[in-house]
Design brief:
The protein has helices spanning 14-32, 40-46, 57-72, 82-88, 100-107, 139-153, 248-261, 263-267; strands spanning 5-10, 53-54, 115-118, 123-126, 158-163, 166-170, 182-185, 194-198, 204-209, 214-217, 220-223, 238-245, 276-281, 285-288, 296-298, 306-309. By secondary structure, the protein is an alpha+beta fold.
Length: 310
């Protein structure tokens, strides 16, 4: 899934569970990757404006969820963002700043409403040539939920799986009886630096930020989270958004959405009942949900950051 996967599972069948999780993640990638020739998403994209394509149940469900999320926010998160993704190439070996007319043209191919899903035939159809789907905005989160189900099948109650920093957390650490502690990454530090620690048993944690995949040109940072309203990387006053909830797809979606919308919109939801947020803005202020009090512990060595309980 174009990222690093780390697993630590405990139980009599933990080794089998690790192997099953790895196999499941490879299967997900082979089905939904935008960049993998022969994937189901590749087939849907190649047939844009030509014909519906039959897809498997799990891919259909993922597309349905992604389209529902796209509709929920009026396309600020849009699963048909791929023409822009490919144009910028930020996750590729040759990223570039496209010309304005290229961006304008790509934007004409971004519209989640033009993805037709047939529940009976289990087909997906992009109605116009040039359109393409990218499920990268929620695939890791949904896969995190699938990890939980695989672990349960093998009787695993304790452990965690990290898919590129998207965490699925199960139970406690049976080695010491304590909660698993995870670092909230410093968005302006190196990969091993963190601004706080957190424990969140039973949750899935997803983070979106401008620091993981980006390139710089003329002292401007161009990150991979594109705003379908402009065609450019989101011009946000946030540099990192972390969402914790029990629904991995929702966590992934909301971390992307709130990053694009910015701090004020995210703060309006920071104390919603079924999710928890950690927001880092460009002034190095950290805002977090009240329910994280005592769960989130600031790192005293991250002196640049000011923590603000909402």
């Amino acid at each position: 899934m174009n990222t690093v996967v780390e697993q630590k599972l405990y139980g009599a069948r933990s080794q089998q569970a690790v192997q099953a999780v790895s196999a499941m993640l490879r299967q997900v990638e082979q089905k939904v990757s935008l960049h993998l020739e022969g994937s189901e998403i590749d087939a849907v994209n190649r047939n844009a404006g030509i014909a519906p394509v039959a897809v498997s149940q799990d891919v259909f469900d993922m597309l349905k969820t992604a389209k529902e999320y796209s509709a929920r926010c009026d396309g600020i998160f849009d699963l048909t963002i791929a023409p822009l993704d490919l144009l910028w190439g930020i996750t590729s070996d040759s990223p570039r700043v496209p010309a304005q007319d290229e961006i304008r043209q790509a934007l004409t191919h971004v519209d989640y409403q033009k993805l037709i899903l047939d529940e009976t035939a289990h087909t997906a159809y992009l109605t116009e040539p040039g359109m393409a789907i990218d499920l990268g905005g929620i695939a890791k989160g949904i896969a995190g939920g699938m990890v939980r189900r695989v672990a349960e099948q093998y009787g695993i109650e304790n452990g965690y799986v990290s898919i590129g920093g998207n965490l699925t957390i199960l139970g406690k650490n049976p080695e010491n009886g304590q909660q698993f502690l995870f670092g909230v990454r410093d968005p302006r530090g190196n990969q091993n630096e963190y601004i706080a620690t957190i424990y969140a048993p039973g949750k899935i944690m997803a983070t979106s930020g401008d620091y993981e995949r980006y390139f710089e040109q003329d002292s401007v940072r161009y990150h991979h989270i594109l705003d379908p309203r402009t065609g450019y990387p989101a011009d946000s006053d946030l540099i990192s958004v972390t969402v914790l909830t029990q629904d991995g797809g929702l966590a992934d979606y909301l971390s992307t959405l709130f990053f694009i919308l910015g701090k004020q919109a995210a703060l309006e939801h920071i104390n919603d009942e079924n999710l928890q947020l950690i927001l880092v803005d460009k002034d190095y202020r950290v805002y977090y949900s009240q329910s994280l009090e005592g769960v989130l512990e600031p790192n005293p060595e991250a002196k640049a950051y000011t923590f603000c309980k909402s």
